[in-house]
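Protocol step 6 of 9: fold each sequence in the batch and record its structure tokens directly after the sequence line. For illustration, a two-sequence batch is reproduced in full.

Sequence one:
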Amino acid sequence: MAARQPRFNQKVLVDTTPLPESIPKVDEIGSSSAPLLSASYFIGARCKAFNDDFMVCKTEAHGTGEIDCLREGRKVTRCAASV
């Protein structure tokens, strides 16, 4: 057995800065990876157009897509939550 004791980080970092009004509000899915993986076929089929827009935005953003494409990402999350 290993002599090292495991260390866990119990701190949660939350950014309280509000998003701009141009980014649509959406609740997080709140699910673990197992249900999302089992529903991925249906989510992919229903949300293909939104996901394609997000991926095009990320490709065109050249490394800053996580910030520049928040609007498209929120649309993908909203569509996945509706499945």
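Sequence two, same batch, same settings:
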Amino acid sequence: MYSTLLISALSGLALVHAQSEATPNPTIPAMPTSTVGIPTIEGALVYDGPPVIGYTGPGGNATIQNGNPAATFQAVFPTPEFDSATGTTISGSVIAMTPANGTGVMLTVSLANLPDPAIYGPLVYHIHELPVPSDGNCTGTMAHLDPTQRGELHACEAPAPQTCQAGDLAGKHGNITATTWNVSYTDLYLSTTPGSPYYFGDLSVVIHSSNATRLTCANFTMVSTSNTTAPSSTPTITPFMGAASTTFGSASLFGGVMIAIAAFFL
């Protein structure tokens, strides 16, 4: 009986492993071999699975954020290049402010000197669950802001943003498709209320290539307690030249899980 259960368990794991991986784009620089951070699809050489209509996490749909206090936040990307393989130095900012009606957040994304999306794209960007650490390592921001625990098994459905991760800005509002990118929109599922699970004011924003390499990142800081913008300033951050990714579904992680299950049944 144990051997039958073991075979079934390993077969199931193999199926999940096969479904979670995809062929990496050979035109994109390979990820660093060394990794840090928690296991997550974010930062791995895999793509999200196909969209599943109505798919949500254990927390269900995200809730529209009403009654947000007036505030303006800004994330300015530092001048140093975090991923020199692309040969570009990304610059720009993301400004987020409370709209007049206090519902959601208005975002203005202004970026320049992006890698060529025809080679490295589509480029995507997200709000992550932790701020950028002092060494500038984008991996330290960990995974996406995801209060509903939706995860990244299936791609976000743009027509149903309430089902997406709160921090998946590209999934809800569109990928970056040019080397200069300027766009504004309102996201109903972000909060300027400290303590809210949808609050982003002390978190970070990260830009990725299509293989999920973290190209650059910046922290949000409050620049005003009103609905106004402030001049951009470039922070001084020491560029991190090591690994900027974590891995999910890698051979080592998969093998370790299989060994653990085999040991349990045997």
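Proceed to step 7 once all outputs are recorded. Observation for sequence two: Residues 2-20 form the longest helix (19 residues).
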